[in-house]
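> example.struct
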């Protein structure tokens, strides 16, 4: 076997072992009862119930006021000015509930307070920035929800369903910390072998820690475990693992360097004393060691104990003092830490206010005192359960207050996942997976259309070759040709790429671990979001392309001038699947935020309120000029984008029909265009846009031949595209709850999907990080982008059909007709310009 084949085979085997653990991480984190994420989900549901919109709850504020005046224009009938008496983001309100006064005086909620898009710094609170929800109605929702009881139930369900998986990941984390400590020479090879044996009796120090091995325990571990308890509420800030011969490993789950070995207990104590004599290190130890960071008395007691050890007359005396706090573990170490994590989670859950506690306090007249002592859910500390998974505060890259009070649910979950995956990779000695192209598959989450596909029913299909047209390479590919196993017939090059010869042409392929099959992929982007192109070797040793089985119901009526094609890709994305859609949206948001992190966006300092422009919109002023895009912590804001995503039709009415509702739309559109111009562009992913006659865009002109391949379209309004194909199909049909096949609605001859292929456009600005509808994975195009029709086909499935229009951006044609992207009609630039009250704005998008 050649060296290249050996390396490729090893990479595939490594991915076989790592990917199941990554799936386990996603399963556990998705179900993990994080009160912040749970509250965020229910806050979103409350907004949807009252507004019909899936709004990110971080944009929705509850404000209470001391004064009010009546208003015939506002939803509540009242308006307010001046700073509110109290303000909470909706997610916080779900946990903390309304003030004690309003528990009885519900009728005053709508008078004294309201929901708004802006925080406590706004100049006014009325119909211009209100969220159309009544406090009295939300009060009923909160009583019906009973968040505290809901959370306690989530805790019990999580441990009942995922205790074994959590145990595996706690083992992975210990191995990951051990591998890092070995690399940094804080432990020896002998220590490493002992740790592996402690994790599983079948795991040696040189084998891959597969899921099967990690599920096994060792009833006779080579290390004896001791826990140190420095006060009531201590949650395991220090463990020691003792080997025969006196060698000791100190394990601090919360620490950036969690494992360190010593030749003796005395040497370990000497190291601890040195640390505890440093005030900063001592405070960090106390903060991580005690569950309730607000319990000053118990924290002080722990400090007294640690200081007493640190101030001992000698190392021998310090060791004697330390042993007073020893608590030997008689059972399995992992059983112990899991019980500890569960107990802490239950204790924290009991501190939340539930309906029963509120009712008792109201009946006894002690509600104010009750809320003062147990006010909502006070963050107690970074959960030990997350530390045991490898997601300590230091690794998640958030400071403690920011981590505990994070309101951006997506950033929080992304940071947790990244930290836990670091432990997984470290346990396999993959300290930098990004430098190994052949291991790229372990870094990505397989898209929904690559999961659960029954390839057994797919057959060799010569007509499927159209799916790989243009994907071949003209370069001469030399390398080793695999002779056996899954590498048989695959050519491997030194850079880790894999190739096959199909019908005399050379294609790049990658191995799908989800489907156990090779897929034809784009040469320069093997993980592009494209339909499946699976291949297999036939009996003659030749590669053949597979196609899906034909539909039993046959195909819809043919459309002249274009092919009609079934599509397993669109079979997946036309069906409602909220969980998968959310995962795609989270990936889009993460990608778009990564662009912004490298971009010079204005910063709003922590604790400072935004500035206001002359319209009262939030901004950050730089040299006296408003900058609407700004970063606050790990979150991004742009009030112009927020207003657009909540009032899209109002803004676009100007460009579609010349209708002005407020009078200052031209100024707003100009500022929005300026603001978008300062943000990064991106064309690295394929974008989609859906249309239907019910939304003013339809596929009829493509079906009847009015619009053909080669024609040029132009967008004449603020045009939204999405990275999330689940979302595009919602816009390509008539919404109908009773649609067959789990579809979001009814598809007909007006259904159309536009596809902007990755790398073939340049005018789209990603805006999801600023949008109140982050799930849409949205990018926005200003008017004036010319798009050439590159392909037309009718895509169909059992219960759907639509025209797919493939587009590529082009320059303004020198001559010939141009058609409106939205309507399909011939574009009349003079009539378009006449709709604007401000000629310069029309000239901006369509210069003379």
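> example.seq
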């Amino acid at each position: 076997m050649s060296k290249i084949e050996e390396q490729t085979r090893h990479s595939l085997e490594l991915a076989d072992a790592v990917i199941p653990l990554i799936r386990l991480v996603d399963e556990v984190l998705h179900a993990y009862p994080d009160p912040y994420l749970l509250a965020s989900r229910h806050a979103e549901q409350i907004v949807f119930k009252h507004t019909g919109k899936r709004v990110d709850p971080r944009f929705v504020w509850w404000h209470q006021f001391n004064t009010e005046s009546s208003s015939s224009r506002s939803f509540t009938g009242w308006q307010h000015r001046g700073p509110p008496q109290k303000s909470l983001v909706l997610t916080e309100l779900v946990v903390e509930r309304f003030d004690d006064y309003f528990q009885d005086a519900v009728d005053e909620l709508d008078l004294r307070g309201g929901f708004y898009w802006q925080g406590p710094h706004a100049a006014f609170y009325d119909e211009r920035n209100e969220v159309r929800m009544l406090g009295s109605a939300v009060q009923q929702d909160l009583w019906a929800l009973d968040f505290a009881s809901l959370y306690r139930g989530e805790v019990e369900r999580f441990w009942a369903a995922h205790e074994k998986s959590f145990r595996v990941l706690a083992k992975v984390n210990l191995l990951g910390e051990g591998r890092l400590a070995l690399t940094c020479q804080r432990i020896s090879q002998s220590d490493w072998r002992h740790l592996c044996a402690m994790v599983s009796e079948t795991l040696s120090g040189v084998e891959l820690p597969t899921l099967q091995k990690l599920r096994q325990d060792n009833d006779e571990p080579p290390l004896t475990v001791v826990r140190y308890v420095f006060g009531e509420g201590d949650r395991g800030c220090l463990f020691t693992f003792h080997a025969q011969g006196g060698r000791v490993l100190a394990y601090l789950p919360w620490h950036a360097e969690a494992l360190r070995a010593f030749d003796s207990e005395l040497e370990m104590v000497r190291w601890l004393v040195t640390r505890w004599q440093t005030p900063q290190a001592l405070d960090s130890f106390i903060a991580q060691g005690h569950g309730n960071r607000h319990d000053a008395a118990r924290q002080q007691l722990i400090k007294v104990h640690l200081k007493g050890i640190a101030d001992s007359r000698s190392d021998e005396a310090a060791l004697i003092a330390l042993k007073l706090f020893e608590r030997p573990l008689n059972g399995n170490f992992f059983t112990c830490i899991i019980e500890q994590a569960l107990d802490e989670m239950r204790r924290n859950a009991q501190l939340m206010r539930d309906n029963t506690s509120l009712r008792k306090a109201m009946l006894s007249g002690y509600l104010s005192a009750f809320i003062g002592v147990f006010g909502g859910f006070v963050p107690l500390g970074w959960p030990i359960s997350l530390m045991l998974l490898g997601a300590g505060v230091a690794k998640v890259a958030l400071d403690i207050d920011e981590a505990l009070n994070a309101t951006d649910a997506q950033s929080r979950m992304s940071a947790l996942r990244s930290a836990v995956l670091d432990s997984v990779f470290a346990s396999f000695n993959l300290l930098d997976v990004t430098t190994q192209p052949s291991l790229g598959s372990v870094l990505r989450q397989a898209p929904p259309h690559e999961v659960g596909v029954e390839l057994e029913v797919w057959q060799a299909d010569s007509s499927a070759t159209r799916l790989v047209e243009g994907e071949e390479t003209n370069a001469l590919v030399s390398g080793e040709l695999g002779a056996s196993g899954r590498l048989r017939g695959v050519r491997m090059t030194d850079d880790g790429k894999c190739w096959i010869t199909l019908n005399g042409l050379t294609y790049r392929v990658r191995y799908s671990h989800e489907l156990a099959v090779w897929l034809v992929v784009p040469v320069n982007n093997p993980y592009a979001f494209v339909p499946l192109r699976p291949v297999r070797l036939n009996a003659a040793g030749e590669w053949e392309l597979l196609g899906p089985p034909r539909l039993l119901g046959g195909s819809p009526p043919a459309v002249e001038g274009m092919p009609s094609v079934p599509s397993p890709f669109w079979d997946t994305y036309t069906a409602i699947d909220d969980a998968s859609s959310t995962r795609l949206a989270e990936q889009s948001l993460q990608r778009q935020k990564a662009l912004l992190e490298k971009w010079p966006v204005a910063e709003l300092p922590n604790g400072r309120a935004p500035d206001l422009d002359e319209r009262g919109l939030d901004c950050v002023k730089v040299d006296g000029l408003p900058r609407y895009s700004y970063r606050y912590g790990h979150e991004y804001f742009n009030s112009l984008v927020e207003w657009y995503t909540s009032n899209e039709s109002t803004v676009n009415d100007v460009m579609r029909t010349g209708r002005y509702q407020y009078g200052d739309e031209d100024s707003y559109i100009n500022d929005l265009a300026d603001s978008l111009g300062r943000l990064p562009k991106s064309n690295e992913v394929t974008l989609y846009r859906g249309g239907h006659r019910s939304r003013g865009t339809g596929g009829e002109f493509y079906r009847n031949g009015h619009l053909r391949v080669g024609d040029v379209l132009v967008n004449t309004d603020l045009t939204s595209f999405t990275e999330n194909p689940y979302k595009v199909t919602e816009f390509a049909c008539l919404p109908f709850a009773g649609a067959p096949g789990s579809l979001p609605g009814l598809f007909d001859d007006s259904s159309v999907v536009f596809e902007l292929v990755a790398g073939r456009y340049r005018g789209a600005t990603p805006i999801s990080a600023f949008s109140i509808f982050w799930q849409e994975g949205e990018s926005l195009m200003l008017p004036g982008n010319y798009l050439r029709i590159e392909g037309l086909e009718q895509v169909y499935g059992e219960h759907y059909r639509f025209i797919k229009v493939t587009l590529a951006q082009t320059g303004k044609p020198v001559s010939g007709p141009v058609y409106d992207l939205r309507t399909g009609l011939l574009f009349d630039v003079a009539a378009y310009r006449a709709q604007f009250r401000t000629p310069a704005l029309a000239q901006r998008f369509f210069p003379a």
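> remarks
Residues 446-549 form one domain.
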